[in-house]
């Protein structure tokens, strides 16, 4: 079975990731997604930002670097920022702050810079019964565990605009995951 890490990569093989020089995977954990991206795009410099204790004993490679830090404080500069299944752990105020820090991180490349958000988007009208049920359960778990939540497209749009972004594109990725490309 293809994991969500691989699916993200497949989607981007033919996409404009090839034109980027650097990407930072924010809340990228131990680098499972970043390693796949790095192995496919050998000229792309990839940084994984996660909490210091998560990355402290990890070694990078030619094009992979681990940085310990706090996304609520600052995010390393790069052409693009990836936030994969990370924002649903946070309430609206924290999401806005994280997105503002993402915008600052890509500020050196205002022409091509973008933030890529991979999340489940609530959409009961279009989802199959199984997918809607999965999202509702995930939403409850996020609320109970982190005071986070799954959001509808309108809620995401409001957060992106409040964080200072100008536009976004939403594409389906898998049955339950969608992909936002957000532009400053
Ligand atoms: C739900 S996991 C997402 C992991 C990964 N992006 C994926 O797709 O599998 C959230 C990640 O955010 C990290 N994290 C939590 N708070 C953070 C913070 N303040 N700054 C940086 N990373 C943080 C956690 O350690 C965890 O690895």
Automatic annotation (TrEMBL):
InterPro entries: COMT-like (IPR016461), COMT_C (IPR001077), SAM-dependent_MTases_sf (IPR029063)
Signal peptide residue numbers: none
Biological process terms in GO annotation: methylation
Gene3D superfamilies tied to this protein: Vaccinia Virus protein VP39
Annotated O-methyltransferase C-terminal domain residues: 16-166
PROSITE patterns: SAM_OMT_II
Keywords linked to the UniProt accession: Methyltransferase, S-adenosyl-L-methionine, Transferase
GO molecular function, one term: methyltransferase activity
SUPFAM superfamilies: S-adenosyl-L-methionine-dependent methyltransferases (SSF53335)
Protein name, UniProt field: O-methyltransferase C-terminal domain-containing protein
């Amino acid at each position: 079975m293809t994991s969500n890490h691989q699916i993200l990569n497949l989607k981007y093989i033919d996409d404009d990731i090839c034109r980027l020089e650097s990407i930072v995977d924010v809340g990228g954990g131990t680098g499972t997604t970043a390693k796949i991206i790095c192995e496919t795009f050998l000229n792309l410099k990839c940084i994984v930002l996660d909490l210091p204790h998560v990355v402290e004993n990890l070694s990078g490679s030619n094009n992979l670097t681990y940085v310990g830090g706090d996304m609520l404080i600052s995010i390393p500069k790069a052409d693009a920022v990836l936030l994969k299944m990370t924002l649903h752990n946070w309430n609206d105020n924290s999401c806005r702050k994280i997105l503002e820090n993402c915008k600052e991180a890509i500020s050196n490349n205002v022409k091509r810079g973008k933030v890529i958000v991979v999340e489940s988007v609530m959409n009961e009208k279009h989802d199959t019964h199984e997918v809607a049920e999965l999202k509702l359960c995930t939403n409850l778990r996020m609320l109970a565990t982190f005071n986070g939540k799954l959001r509808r497209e309108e809620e995401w749009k409001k957060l992106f605009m409040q964080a200072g972004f100008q536009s976004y594109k939403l594409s389906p990725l898998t049955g339950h995951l969608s992909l936002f490309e957000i532009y400053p």
